[in-house]
Design brief:
Layout: H1 17-32, H2 37-67, H3 72-84, H4 89-101, H5 105-112, H6 114-123, H7 132-150, E1 154-156, E2 159-161, H8 167-170, H9 175-191, H10 193-213, H11 220-226, H12 234-247, H13 249-263, H14 288-302, H15 304-315, E3 319-322, E4 332-336, E5 341-348, H16 353-370, H17 384-397, H18 402-406, H19 410-440, H20 446-460, H21 470-473, H22 482-486, H23 491-510, H24 512-525, H25 531-537, H26 548-562
Parallel strand pairs: 3-5
Antiparallel strand pairs: 1-2, 4-5
């Protein structure tokens, strides 16, 4: 496989799952019988090569399926993978066990670092053969959710639109348009409520079974282990969320009140908060080709590494960016290991989110590009809160180039981006708190889950007035957030990374060279040390430490106060 291959020329071939399984089993036996540290490491790399090929085929299938969920071939292949992959879960856990119990474990640690062994300790807690059927069922249900949400066809303003396509109308300067678009979008989701409740209920039950089969009271310890968290736990998360309630919620509420005053609306409803300015939200001044060209210039000017990276993304067609019928919702970055290539997927819809998702996913992809030659995949395997620093910080490092994208709307974008980052934190914490409650109460009814979220929502976002919309009033807003279905307990990681990204934002304005050097170190060191150690190593404050959030917000308020308000009415 050529590492210069373009995306459309990358060959997908369904793996010979049985043959691959046998070959990987053979590697485990060889690891067990290794007679030296060098021999053990050589077989680890042999097993890793087989795993990389499996992941490459999986990623190619997933990308081509999500680009067009109506593609019958890749839809069928996606289902095949969902059934086939769970039994391969044993190899990571079993290889971890063998290394940890090997007389040559210190040879592995000497070559790759002690943190690799810490990751292996966590990894072997996530699998037993008894859960294979449950993992297959979990995969089936997450795919069912994706298919359901991608199937949205909402008749609005003379066209059928998917959920992403409704966003520009929900940000209209016309209040009635915002209201109608929001009611249409949420109305479609509400019409799927029984299906959404059923899918989630089944996911909770299957995950609870997984937790119990692995020896725990519930799914939460398994979720934390799946996320690879070696240096923070549920109690840390609870204390961190309390910081958000204490230090961020009051600031977010202040900003919401300023928004209401700016818009001149005394009775703000949920559909009003999507409009930030009376003159309209900032919008990029061009479509995909224009934005990609501006990004190319931006990344060439930012650094030699980012310039080389982004030109590779363009030259090899490693991006699919604009929304279209049948395309799955959201945005993501994945990596084709055999081709040493990241891939960016998004749903451009003409809003400022197009630029956000481009810089965000480019941050993920840049990290993947920098680590593309790492010889052992497990070494570069890092937790999500580290991964999201790469993406969220990139959003802020690119601020000096935003005039290329937004022109006369640039100051609007600066204000909106920073305010949105602050206001996101309570929402992210609310999602995490809901999941904690859900998996501690696995037998709760859908109605009880919704009611609990409405209580949580009022604690973190007391400004929300749902204007009598029953679906939202009952606390079901979270069902639009795919992470709760696909990636349980992921969401708090976004908020932790946001706190790091905001530190980079203020640091970059004071000393760009030092901040950028630290960021490159975060990308290159990811996977070598755990989160808390990494942030301190690169000169950031640990978000879990009480007082960290309170120490960051004053600089953000000062930045917002310093913007020219005459241009952001």
């Amino acid at each position: 496989m050529s590492i210069n291959t373009k995306f459309e020329d990358m060959v997908y071939q369904r793996p010979d799952f049985d043959g691959l399984y046998a070959a990987m089993k053979g590697c485990l036996q060889e690891m067990e019988g290794a007679q030296s540290g060098d021999e053990l490491i050589a077989v680890m790399l042999k097993l890793d090569k087989l795993s990389r090929n499996l992941r490459t085929m999986r990623s190619l299938c997933h990308v081509r399926y999500t680009i067009n969920t109506k593609d019958e071939f890749y839809a069928a292949e996606h289902d095949v993978f969902n059934q086939a992959l769970p039994r391969f879960g044993e190899f990571g856990a079993e290889a971890a066990r063998i290394v940890l119990e090997s007389p040559y474990r210190q040879d592995v640690a000497a070559k790759y670092g002690e943190h690799l062994l810490e990751k292996y300790e966590i990894q072997r807690k996530t699998f037993k053969p008894e859960i294979i059927n449950d993992l297959q069922e979990e995969n089936r249900l997450t795919s069912e959710y994706q298919k359901l949400m991608a199937s949205a066809e909402i008749d609005f303003e003379g066209e059928k639109r998917n959920l992403s396509g409704m966003t520009p109308f929900m940000q209209s300067t016309d209040r009635d348009m915002r209201r109608r678009a929001s009611l249409a979008s949420w109305g479609w989701i509400a019409a799927q409520q029984d299906k959404l409740d059923d899918i989630y209920n089944q996911l909770v039950q299957v995950r609870h079974r997984i937790g119990q089969k692995l020896g725990y009271d519930n799914f939460i310890p398994v979720a934390y282990a799946r996320m690879g968290r070696t240096d923070w736990n549920q109690q840390d998360a609870q204390a961190y969320r309390a910081q958000i309630v204490e230090s961020v919620v009051p600031l977010a509420q202040k900003l919401y009140k300023e928004q209401a005053a700016r818009l001149g609306i005394e009775d703000m409803k949920f559909y009003d908060y999507s409009l930030t300015f009376t003159t309209g939200n900032p919008t990029p001044k061009g479509e995909e080709a224009y934005l990609v060209e501006q990004a190319r210039i931006m990344y060439e000017e930012l650094s030699p590494q980012t310039g080389e990276f982004f030109n590779t993304m363009i030259d090899r067609n490693l991006m699919d960016l604009t929304t279209k019928p049948g395309k799955a919702n959201g945005g993501y970055m994945t990596f084709f290991s055999d081709y040493k290539a990241p891939f960016i997927f998004s749903n451009f819809n003409g809003t400022s989110g197009d630029v956000d998702v481009l810089t965000h996913e480019a941050g993920h992809a840049f990290n993947g590009y920098l680590q593309r030659d790492v010889e052992l995949s497990d070494l570069a395997d890092f937790t999500s809160e580290v991964a999201e620093i790469h993406s969220m910080a990139m959003e802020f490092f690119t601020h000096p180039w935003m005039k290329r994208f937004f022109k006369e709307d640039t100051t609007k974008y600066y204000y909106d981006h920073v305010v949105s980052a602050i206001q996101f934190l309570p929402y992210g914490a609310s999602v995490d708190e809901l999941q904690e409650w859900v998996y501690e109460h696995p037998d709760a009814t859908p109605a009880e889950r919704h009611a609990q979220y409405r209580l949580i929502e009022k604690k973190y976002m007391p400004h929300l007035d749902y204007d009598g919309v029953a679906y939202l009033e009952q606390g079901a807003r979270w069902q639009k957030q795919l992470h709760l279905y696909l990636y349980p307990f992921y969401y708090l990681d976004y908020t932790l990374a946001q706190m790091c990204a905001l530190q980079y934002f203020t640091w970059d304005m004071q000393d760009h060279e030092a901040a950028w050097a630290s960021y490159l170190n975060v990308c290159k060191r990811a996977g070598r040390v755990p989160f808390k150690k990494l942030v301190l190593e690169v000169g950031l404050k640990n978000p879990f430490e009480h007082g960290t959030i309170a120490s960051i917000t004053p600089a953000l308020e000062k930045y917002l106060d310093g913007l020219d308000k005459s241009t952001i009415k």
